[in-house]
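Recall that a protein's primary structure is simply its ordered list of amino acids. Everything else, from secondary elements to tertiary packing, is in principle encoded there. The following example makes that idea concrete.
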Amino acid sequence: MLNKILTGRTGYFIGFTACFALVGVALWMQTRYHLEPCPLCISQRIIFMALGVLFLLAALLPKLPKFFAVLQVLTALGGIGVAMRHWWVQAHKESMIADCGVGFDYMFENFPLKKALTLVFRGTGDCAAIDWTFLGLTIPQMSLIAFLCFGIYAVYLAKLNLKSS
């Protein structure tokens, strides 16, 4: 029954909705709990949105399930990398710099792209802060789980859609 629902465009629309729902939850948490996102948090949100757009494109162009599965898995792997880096920064917060560093907007407005990206992925004292947890998991840990699930989901959808064609 579930396979029948997920076959075709519906499964991809669910992936699109889920990706943007997670970004919506992040924005809600940010405003509700007065959390200021660090550069790595913002990077993860951007990757969730990119993954959502890929799910939407796969729904609109259903003849290319392998192509979109590869792009979705690569994007999810990129998200896993960023989430793992963020988790690592939080786990090693004692050795991180004490101040919060510069903001995401400032970096991209005032530094060349290569330097800005280097600063984003280095993490700052702000990235090391653990401001919120749920069931003992930090936000980067939950993002890591979500990216892993989206990667598996993309492969699953591609297999379903290849079987049905």
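The longest strand covers residues 133-134. The longest helix spans residues 65-91.
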